[in-house]
């Protein structure tokens, strides 16, 4: 069968642990959402099964771990660049060893974007993954590891400028309540302060640069204004993301997907979707992993990159049906397997209001 060159191609990168199970869910849901629509989607899967942190722990020595980490990073970077060159606009990636991922994110200048909202208030979180402690290289000497990392004026400019563009996209009337940057800038000799001041003047906006503990204190004491654009160094944002979800997102980490945008000009237009949760190696192959975040990622890819208008809302309605029927995996207090939840979701998409499908197997059942 010849591939239609006008049809969208979606990338898929799979890590170890529960990655293969979730990749299957993604393919099934994306296929169901786009079936019968013009330009049937093709999924291009990376040929490499990438390591998780836990799969690397069985390696015999540090040198071997470093070798595999670098190999995964190099391969995934090439995969992203190749897909971008060929016109792919979206990749779904399951959880992969963070050290490999951050090598790629540094090289491709990535930011993680998550729009959070609850009680009529919204917050746009833009996590700077392109610089700082999470990036850089390790050097080993006997009994010691030295990590070298960089902050850069041009990287900071590209992150802030993208964040403003994204905020205006999310809030089209142009009203941004406040722009806050949370970075450990006291350790940077005043350089970050100077770059941000210059950029704020150039862009004609007011930007508040704060230490992370100050942002935490203000969040606890006063909250943050509606439509806060929060640009944050990953040292703080990675830890606080789940707390911000609790405060603003009204959602669990296990149920949420998010996106990474690459600011390298060669990858302009390519967005990577991922689950917020990790690889969960301890339950791999047991049918216990929660597929909700993956299902939501498939919906966002279908709507945003495959022309399936209404996919996100259709999936949210189906998920509400599952919640009403008590169909969920054990991490949410349910008794259903990964496959059973996915089956029930697809059934709810096809026949809203129908009864619980007979094949919604309980964990441990037949």
Describe the structure.
This protein is α/β, with parallel strands linked by helices. It has 2 domains: 1-109 and 264-366, Rossmann fold (3-Layer(aba) Sandwich), CATH 3.40.50; 114-252, Isopropylmalate Dehydrogenase, CATH 3.40.718. It is built from 11 helices and 12 strands. A hairpin with a 2-residue loop joins strand 6 (137-141) and strand 7 (144-148). Helix 3 (62-85) crosses helix 4. The longest helix is centred in the first third of the chain and has 24 residues, at 62-85. The chain is globular. Mean pLDDT is 90; it is low at 351-362.
Key attributes of the depicted protein:
366 residues; alpha/beta; Rossmann fold; Isopropylmalate Dehydrogenase; two-stranded antiparallel ribbon; 42% helix; IsoPropMal-DH-like_dom; metal-binding
Task: Briefly characterize the structure.
This is Isopropylmalate dehydrogenase-like domain-containing protein. With 366 residues, this protein is α/β, with parallel strands linked by helices.
SSE map:
Layout: E1 9-15, H1 19-34, E2 42-50, H2 53-56, H3 62-85, E3 90-93, H4 98-108, E4 110-118, E5 121-128, E6 137-141, E7 144-148, H5 153-170, E8 178-182, H6 191-203, E9 208-210, H7 212-221, E10 228-233, H8 234-249, E11 257-262, E12 271-275, H9 292-305, H10 311-325, H11 338-350
Parallel strand pairs: 1-2, 1-3, 3-12, 5-10, 8-9, 8-10
Antiparallel strand pairs: 4-5, 4-11, 6-7, 11-12
Keywords: Manganese, Metal-binding, NAD, Oxidoreductase
Organism: Streptomyces graminearus
Pfam families: Iso_dh
